[in-house]
Amino acid sequence: MHRRGLVERRSRPTHWCSTCNTTLASAEVEEGIRDGPTAYVSFPVCNHGEDDDDDDDALSLWRIINNVYHDGGIDLSPPWSTLSVLVYTASPWSLPMNRAIAISPTCTYTIILASSSPPSSSSLSSPSSSLPSGLIVSTPSAPAVLQLLLNEGVHAIIPPHIPPISPSQLSALRLRSPLTTVLKASQPIIPIVLHGGVYPDRGTGCLHVAPACSQEDYTIGEKNALEMFSPIDTSACYTNGFGVPSFLVGQDVLGAGDDVILSCLKSNSSSSVGGRVLWQVGAMSRPHLACSRCKDHVLYRATPQWFIDIRGSKGERSSSPTSSSSSSSPPRSSFTPPLSSSSFSSSPSSQHSSLVNQVFQRVNNTNDENDGGRVLFHPQKVKQRFVSTLEGRSEWCVSRQRVWGVPIPPLLCSSPSSC
Question: Which of 173, 213, 236, 285 pairs as cysteine with 18 (C-beta 3.0–4.6 A)?
């Protein structure tokens, strides 16, 4: 498998048990229930309005926003000063790892004007923090979000006659983290990316993306070359990583982590800088993965592991004559941080075929002498479970961090560039 380019060591999110201190296979986790908080959080826009004169989408969106406020008798300067994208999340602990907001490419978006206090003529001459916030949400979700804000005592309206905002216009915006004022280091500018998996009528139609915290977010990150930032240790606690404030270090992400983050957001909302960012906090019981051995909660954590590419997709992309120039997905190396001397990837062969296809040939083969024999299952019902497992995955994580079991004995070159 190594010679055929099917073995690779890289960093990506996998199931992690903080009690057993190891990554887990899908068969080693079971469904459980976890009670946890939910939140509606806004990501402030940091574009500079007319300074984006080289971007038609940003300029046209600025005109829409300025007209919305102008109709209400408000002169925005700068025009982005109170605008933000509203996001619903059921994992507040992952917000420090956010690297993008994903929106649907198939629906339009609109603006809800929201304020903690009733608008008055005197407020129009106040600093921007007193102005009503413009919250961008998907058009299908706007009525439900408006009602939620009203139930929270927020004074909110959907301005009449507002032109729909297209996904391309919205993706021209750049955002900053709602945690910016409490994080000890400058945070990266957050882009807005298009993703077909965003449901326009769920939440706000805007998805918080933390590539190191889930498989779907990892896929979005790989496609858009986002940083995979994972300041979480083996015990599922925040580490002293770049951009992590000292009061977060040592906090259990699935324990006190949610509460600490929400407290930070609430504090940021009451500050005089940036305006309100936390709009609603709720609670819900939802399905959650648990370790089949210790029964504790399992999270996704990005760690260096060994993978077998069972579908051969990596080799097929490498051997394709057009893959280097026409592929819409960036190379994995542009997304995954290097693993220094411990990095290892076998060179894919242009001749190799999908490993899973070869397995299916053995499973479905009825002739013992044809193409190397066949695989027999006892009891027979195990066969379908085995086939279903292979059909639902593209790679297999074969490494573990346990003190028992058979270790992987690879020899790693100390100078990969000279090998």
Answer: 236
For the chain, the straight-line distance linking the first and the last C-alpha, in angstroms and rounded, comes to: 19
Residue 308's nearest CA partner among 1, 2, 7 is: 7
Beta bridge partners of 161: none
3-state secondary structure the chain: CCCCCCEEEEEEEEEEECCCCEEECHHHEEEEEEEEEEEEEEEEECCCHHHHCCCHHHHHHHHHHHHHHHHCCCCCCCCCCCEEEEEEECCHHHHHHCCEEEECCCCCEEEEEEECCCCCHHHHHCCHHHCCEEEEEECCCHHHHHHHHHHCCCEEECCCCCCCECHHHHCCCEECCCCCCCCCCCCCCEEEEECCCCCCCCCCCEEEECCCCCHHHHHHHHHHCCCCCCCECCCCEECCCCCCCCCCCCCECCCCHHHHHHHHHHHHHHCCCCCCCEEEEEEEEEEEEEECCCCCEEEEEEEEEEEEECCCHHHHHHHCCCHHHHCCCCCHHHCCCCCHHHCEECCCCCCCCCHHHHHHHHHHCCCCCCCCCCCCCCCCHHHHHHHHHHHCCCEEECCCCCCCCCCCCCCCCCCHHHC
**Average pLDDT value for residue range 182-196:** 80
Contact 230, 211 (CB under 8 A): no
Taking CA atoms, 137 is separated from 37, 41, 49, 101, 166, in Å, by 21, 12, 20, 12, 12
> Where is pLDDT greater, at 100 or 351?
100
Report which of 175, 145, 223, 161 is spatially closest to residue 58, judged by C-alpha positions: 175
- CB distance 206 to 137 below 8 Å: yes
Distance CA 162, CA 113 (A): 12
The token pair at 162 is: 């507002």
Distances (CA, A) of 211 to 94, 170, 234, 249: 10, 21, 18, 20
CA 222, CA 158: separation in Å to the nearest integer? 35
Give the Cβ contact number of residue 170 at 10 Å.
22
Quote the tokens at residue 339: 């693993």
pTM: 0.76
